[in-house]
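Many introductory courses stop at the sequence. We go one step further.
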Amino acid sequence: MGKKKRTQAFVLKPWCWYCEREFEDEKVLLQHQKSKHFKCQLCPRKLNTAGGLMVHSQQVHKCEPEPLTNTLPGRDGYDIEIFGMEGVPTNALAEWKARKEQEAGAAALAAASLAKRPRHAYTVIPEADLMFALEQHKALMAARRNREAAGGAVPPFPPGVAPPFPPGAIRPPLPGMPPPTLGVPPYGAPPFQPPFPPPGGAYPPPPANGYPPAPAPAAAPAPLPAAAPAAPITAEVLPPAGGVFWPDNDATPAEKRALEPKYRYTSPEPEAGEAAAGQKRKAAADFL
């Protein structure tokens, strides 16, 4: 058994009668009406219905209420009491429902037409169309055979214009380029000379055996001259600024003074108490 097709039921969403705007939930519709249509223009107070806004303006502000804001033309009065979807006129509700059903039906038909596979019409082709297509095919094949017989795959040239080179021949080289070679030149053949002459104005004579001459050996470099012996460097001794010389070169004045008995250091000898203090103390077990 095949699967049953699910039919999508049409559901009418909550909508605002004052501005014809749809909402997903009726709670959102009530908040919309309070903030957009039932808000006092003289204070920040928001009412639930149009009648409550009119009573608020007359009792609090002692003035006639202003027309409702953010509404369609002809729907800014206080004669109809609407709270959410309650109180909407019957004719307006029926008109809105018919319009939404028509839009939903058109959308469903469009989706169904897109989902259906395109149908191919298998009709009989007229004989005149078949003969016309056959004549076109014969003309195309005859033109192809004539082109192949004339020169293979070479495209035809206009009458009176010769091809640049016959089919199968070697293409000549471009100006200033060496001719194409199929291999190594035979032994003894002169080498190829460049198309442009050298700066001197003449080509050098070709070698006798077909090979360029070997380069001449380079001359040995000249020996470097022998370096002259360096002169010994002597330090120039300048006289002292005060005019006094220290005659002894082995010891300084500080070392000389340290050797005198007056400045010589002698370590003191330890006394008896200090010598006893340096000995190891006996343990308490030695006295038992």
